Amino acid sequence: MNDNLLESWSDLDELKGARNLETVYLERNPLQKDPQYRRKVMLALPSVRQIDATFVRF
């Protein structure tokens, strides 16, 4: 989902039901500028283990 102009956290709502989703790439989207970006992605998509080529630490 790189380069898709995702600006609102509600833009990720469509992915919340994807329980098998483990990796997301959201690079070069306005959401990525949020200082809490990684934390918010983890909260919105708890099954994700990798965000933008970096593994999630618990």
Summarize the structure.
The protein has 58 residues and is low in regular secondary structure.
Quick one: biggest sheet? 3 strands, mixed
Order of neighbouring strands in the sheet with most strands: 1-2-3
Query: Using DSSP, what is the number of strands?
Result: 3
* Low-confidence blocks of residues: none
Q: Mean pLDDT, nearest integer?
A: 93
Apparent shape: globular
**Helical residue percent band:** 10-25%
Q: If helices are DSSP runs of H or I spanning 4 or more residues, what is the number of helices? A: 1
Oligomer: single chain
Could you tell me the strand content as a percent range? 5-15%
Distance between the termini: 24 Å
Number of domains: 1
Determine Rg (CA atoms, Å). 10 Å
Find the structural class using helix and strand composition.
little secondary structure
H-E order: EHEE
InterPro entries: LRR_dom_sf, U2A'_phosphoprotein32A_C
Protein name: Protein phosphatase 1 regulatory subunit 7
Keywords: Leucine-rich repeat, Repeat
Organism: Cricetulus griseus
Considering the chains and any ligands shown, give keywords for the structure.
58 residues, little secondary structure, 3-stranded mixed β-sheet, 1 helix, globular
